[in-house]
Specification:
The chain has a domain at 1-116 and 303-362: P-loop containing nucleotide triphosphate hydrolases (Rossmann fold), CATH 3.40.50.300. A six-stranded antiparallel β-sheet has the order 2-1-4-5-6-7, covered by helices on one side. A five-stranded parallel β-sheet has the order 8-12-13-3-14, sandwiched between helices. It has twelve helices and 14 strands. Helix content is 45%, strand content 22%. By secondary structure, the protein is of the alpha/beta class. α4 (148-174) crosses α5, α4 (148-174) packs across α7 (246-252) and α5 packs across α9. β6 (97-100) and β7 form a beta hairpin. The protein is globular, with a radius of gyration of 22 Å.
């Protein structure tokens, strides 16, 4: 099993963190301080370096501190015996730049998977409450870190989908026409979307047992939990779906069928948790999802991911926190980063792991 560690971090003008520098010498690190001090944004800076994007901000410009002209993050990572210096630089009205060991990436997708990372945050409740796009994002980040081919196909699929939707709008405004071009886009969607669907089926079939195991450990009760992969391609071949939806697509002026409509349905004892799950069941499910993501990345990439836990002590009851910490005690995790508002509480819980730790006061 390969090891991954973050040895040092520098942050400049990242959200509300003006200037910060850290060195990390222990397996467990806790950022502690009052609300508004930048704990979550420090954790997000680590995630940004690993994943090429903020966990919380979809718009790049929102990661630059107010009144600042740029933001910069730099991390010194060690993967196996190789040092990796990763730098992210973003200026207002400019394209984000990612640099690895002094060399600029041509495509940010080349970076994904180098530093496997999993974040657990209170905002993860969106996986239950929000629309299918949020859950597809979870699938894509899970698989994309482990499978470069999948990531490339997904990027290409999104480009073709945008082009096809633009054409459908044009056809709706100016009459039919452009049928030959539409057919070309259909063929491209099928050639990209079908293998994406097959890859999702494969990975999710491996993911569900890991998820069930984690849920049982966290909840401490016997419940039949499941992750149901919902896809139109499970019912019909993609080309046939596009053919049958031709009239509907023209009327709607966008693509109504395809893998961009896929979803995950979370169930407990056969009932959707979104409608019938208790607060405790939802919390257990969300943590189980993320820990299963951790397990799967570790299994497939043979690299132990970084694990980032944001504000879990305030958002989860003591029993669930204790169970998470007991999992850390099993030494199945590598480097762990935590945020909390109460240093004494954090220290008391972390000491139970019997592992070295550092408190970073903000």
């Amino acid at each position: 099993m390969s090891s991954l560690r973050l040895n040092a971090l520098e942050i400049t003008n990242y959200k509300n963190v003006s200037n910060a520098s850290y060195t990390f010498d222990a397996p467990i690190h806790c950022f502690v301080g009052n609300n508004g001090k930048g704990k979550t944004n420090t954790l997000d800076a680590i995630y940004h370096l690993a994943m090429g994007r903020s966990y919380f901000s979809a718009v790049n410009a929102h990661t630059i501190q107010h009144q600042a002209d740029f933001m910069r993050i730099e991390g010194q990572f060690k993967r196996d015996d190789r040092m990796e210096r990763i730098e992210c630089l973003l200026k207002r009205e400019a394209t984000k730049v990612f640099i690895r060991n002094g060399k600029k990436y041509k495509k940010l997708s080349e970076h994904i998977g180098l530093l496997p990372t999993v974040m657990i945050s209170p905002s993860d409740v969106d996986l239950i409450n929000e629309g299918s796009q949020t859950r597809r994002g979870f699938i894509d980040r899970l698989i994309g870190q482990a499978d470069k081919t999948y990531l490339h196909q997904l990027i290409q699929y999104q480009k073709v989908l945008q082009q096809r939707n633009a054409l459908l709008k044009q056809m709706g405004r100016y009459g039919q026409g452009a049928n030959e071009t539409l057919e070309i886009y259909n063929e491209q969607l099928v050639s990209l979307g079908s293998p994406i669907h097959q890859t999702r089926v494969k990975y999710l079939s491996t993911f569900e047992p890991l998820f069930k195991k984690r849920y049982a450990a966290i909840s401490g009760v016997e419940e039949n939990v499941s992750v149901w992969y919902q896809s139109q391609l499970l019912e019909e071949e993609f080309g046939k779906l596009l053919e049958n939806a031709a009239t509907q697509d023209r009327m709607a002026q966008f693509s109504t069928v395809g893998i961009h409509k896929d979803d995950l349905v979370f169930q407990i004892d056969g009932y959707p948790i979104k409608k019938f799950g208790s607060q405790g069941q939802r919390k257990s499910l969300l943590i189980a999802l993320k820990l299963a993501q951790f397990d799967m990345l570790k299994q497939i990439t043979t690299v132990t991911p970084l694990l980032l836990l944001d504000d879990i002590f305030d958002k989860l009851d003591e029993e669930r926190v204790s169970k998470i910490i007991s999992l850390v005690h099993e030494s199945s995790f590598g480097q762990l980063f935590i945020t909390d508002t109460h240093p004494e509480r954090t220290e008391a819980v972390i000491k139970k792991t019997e592992q070295a730790f550092q408190l970073h006061h903000l």
